[in-house]
Amino acid sequence: MVSELIMTVTDRNTEEIILEAACTIFFQKGFAGARMQEIADSAGINKALLHYYYRSKDQLFEAVFNRALISFLPTIKIALEAEMPLTQKIAKFVENYVDVLIANPHIPAFVIHELNTDPNRVVLKLKSHGVDPRIILRQVDEAIAAGEIRAINGEHFLINLLSLCIFPFVARPVAQGILQKSNEEYTLFLQQRKSEILEFVMQSIKAS
Amino acid sequence: MVSELIMTVTDRNTEEIILEAACTIFFQKGFAGARMQEIADSAGINKALLHYYYRSKDQLFEAVFNRALISFLPTIKIALEAEMPLTQKIAKFVENYVDVLIANPHIPAFVIHELNTDPNRVVLKLKSHGVDPRIILRQVDEAIAAGEIRAINGEHFLINLLSLCIFPFVARPVAQGILQKSNEEYTLFLQQRKSEILEFVMQSIKAS
DNA sequence: GTCTATATTGTGATAGAC
DNA sequence: GTCTATCACAATATAGAC
Questions:
Q1: In angstroms, what is the C-alpha Rg of chain A?
Q2: Cβ of residue A45 near strand C, that is under 7 Å?
Q3: How confident is the model at residue B163 (pLDDT cuts 50, 70, 90)?
Q4: Which terminus of chain A has a lower count of CB atoms within 10 Å, N or C?
Q5: Cα–Cα distance, B80 to B92 (Å, whole number)
């Protein structure tokens, strides 16, 4: 029984090591560009073990994709559903979300690319995780009615907010090239965006 | 000589048909996900002909990537370098750029993904096409100095502008899912963005 | 559980007839 | 220029020893 326990622990570790290596490779190269050999090398183990634990490339990818979503959805969910005034909620969302993006800079481009190439691969797991955008849309309308902010279109505003937060990460090579920044300079630039986005957004919605 | 002329014309047509089919497939699936067989099928010809005209998958991809850049850079260049006041230039840029995006909705995600996976593949052809972002950055600073707009960070402003224009195309599946829109509804939504972005941006920079 | 060796299929590329 | 047939290799997946 002791040996069973030890083996189980060992299993978990290897399984986790593989998954992390798979994340690194899949996030960077996507499903089609990733190679099982490369993942095995990155995990410091053998190709056959990948199949032992995850059966096929498809199933390994599925696990990676799930982890990618799980890294982000809770943050979004918490920020969107919190009980606070709209402007405060926006501030909290931008701050938390950009922090998560800095911690996981490759995930957005990965998810977006996989959804673009094969929209059927993951049949919108957003809903299954219970993120409901209507909450924030309703709150925007309420804030307009209460005169807290000027009249805007809630849907466009929501997409604007997401665009400002996510795009600089998704299009990092392009943006970095345009601004002619080094890696360090661009990382700093991303840090600054939390306050810059907030100022930009607040200015654009404040009641006149 | 007549036959030579005719053959030349025929060549050009086949070459062009292949390139267009290759664009369709590469834009959607990326370099790693695209299959030469699929491109041949899409072009209604044979796999061998692809190699006859473009030698290798790499070279065919190169041609596709070039076409993708050429579709966009002139519009950006013209808009950025035009001789007009900043606010007017911004308006023109948003309008023209979103129109080009609507006409070529898959290109941004394609370019971004390829630059993300292999930053070396195309060694920043932006510069080779002569797009210089410093023009607009300088103009922003001048407008601030002249009191036309409130004090903002030019670099963040430029990235904000690009984010608002491009992101809804790059992340279409995600955004469409969040807003729960049909294809027709989302296409309409993209059309509306021209005025929405402008209003949003102008409000955020206008002198107080 | 982990490895080596191998089977099997997929895919880019070429040869050669027409 | 265009096709069919085929090569050569890459990549996923499995078999079987330890």
A1: 21
A2: yes
A3: very high
A4: N
A5: 9
Task: Give the separation between CA A112 and CA A69, rounded to whole angstroms.
Answer: 11
Shared domain check, B113 and B10: no
pLDDT of residue B1: 46
| Residue A34: C-alpha distances to residues A26, A29, A31, A64, A87 (Å) | 6, 5, 5, 12, 42
Residues B153 and A172: their CA atoms lie apart, in Å, by 18
Q: A25 in contact with B at a CB cutoff of 8 Å? A: no
User: Does residue A24 surpass a pLDDT of 70?
Assistant: yes
Whole-number Å distance between alpha carbons of B22 and B38? 9
Measure B115 CA to nearest chain A CA, in Å.
6
Average pLDDT over every residue of A138-161: 96
Q: Phi and psi for A149 in degrees, rounded to 5?
A: -130, 165
Looking at the structure of chain A, the number of domains it has is 2
In Å, what is the separation between the CA of A33 and the C1' of C12? 15
> Would you say residue B126 has pLDDT above 80?
no
Q: Closest CA to C14 C1' — which residue?
A: B48
Please check whether residue A195 touches B, CB under 8 A: no
Q: What is the pLDDT of residue A4?
A: 47
User: Residue B19 is part of which domain span?
Assistant: 1-55
B87 and B41 in a common domain: no
Instruction: Return the CATH number at A27.
Output: 1.10.10.60
Mean pLDDT of B21-33: 98
User: Which residues in B lie closer than 8 A to residue A117 (C-beta atoms)?
Assistant: 28-30, 33
Under an 8 A CB cutoff, do B116 and A168 touch?
no
Strand C–CB A153 distance below 7 A: no
Query: A119 — contact with chain B (CB < 8 Å)?
Result: yes
**Mean pLDDT for chain B?**
90
